[in-house]
Amino acid sequence: MSSEKKGIVYAVLSYLMWGLTPIYWKLIQHVSSAEILAQRIFWSFIFMLGILLIMKKWSMFLAFIKELLEKPRLLLSLCIASILISANWGIFMWAVIHGRILEASLGQYITPLTSILLGVILLKERLNKLQTISFLLAGIGVFILTFHYGGVPWLSLSLALTFGFYGLVKKVIKTDSTMGLAIETMSIAPFAFLYLSHLMVQTQLQFTESISTSLLLMGSGAVTALPLLLFTKSAKTVSLSMLGILQYISPTLSLLVGVFLYRETLSTAHIMAFIFIWSALALYTFSSVSNRGKKLYFANKT
């Protein structure tokens, strides 16, 4: 299997996981969103340390930290990535806990458009005619949802922008995905630990409320880091525009979860938007497969 195909598989798996995570967060909705965010960050770091030990990359990790101290621009980029993804986690968490899964899914629908635009504008990625049409179709679908909400969907836009720029930073940074994610979580983990310590001193920490709550909060590290690790692997070999289109898997699953499990209202606007967005996905996929077929054909002829 080629590196690009592996990257696509990693991307699909990560988006499937992200699409189903609202179910997990609903299980601990009695915990404050701020504490869940801090717990996610802290246990994600612990999870990544475990991954490094299992993969026997601990010495490489220490060497990587030393290298970062000699490359402040790379260190700054990883810190920016950690801030962006932490903000994205916090916004999404707040939306799920407060019964706004559909609005969060709108943000995830806008994210691929952000990724595609960033890829075209900043990375000079090119779209062919069919891909351009698919982008416009997806844009119409998102516009329908935006119009349906009756104003600027700030929560949705915040989700889209934070993850869109996170994807851009991860695309540009040339580091091992495991090392990079370990540094990202490590750079923000001290702040999470300080906040959790503050809650404990104030006797407001809900981590020890029950065994199930403790286990679920500890498990949030794996639930958070695993799809992110798969995504960072895919970002190295898959174009930002392709990642943008595949990303529609996640909000679609989240929207279905919100409608069928948690009884949020699915309006006519959502159905219309679905038609446009999935038509865009089908068209973009057809275009990509067709282009690969042509390249293989001409490569064999030469």
TrEMBL record:
Domain of life: Bacteria
The entry's keywords: Cell membrane, Membrane, Transmembrane, Transmembrane helix, Transport
InterPro entries cross-referenced by the UniProt entry: EamA_dom, EmrE-like, RarD
Pfam families: EamA (PF00892)
Stretch forming the signal peptide: none
SUPFAM superfamilies: Multidrug resistance efflux transporter EmrE
Transmembrane segments: 7-25, 37-54, 74-94, 106-123, 130-147, 181-201, 213-231, 243-262, 268-286
Major subcellular location class: membrane
Cellular-component GO terms for this entry: plasma membrane
Subcellular localization: Cell membrane
Membrane topology: Multi-pass membrane protein
Residues covered by the EamA domain: 6-146
Similarity section: Belongs to the EamA transporter family.
Listed name of the protein: Chloramphenicol-sensitive protein RarD
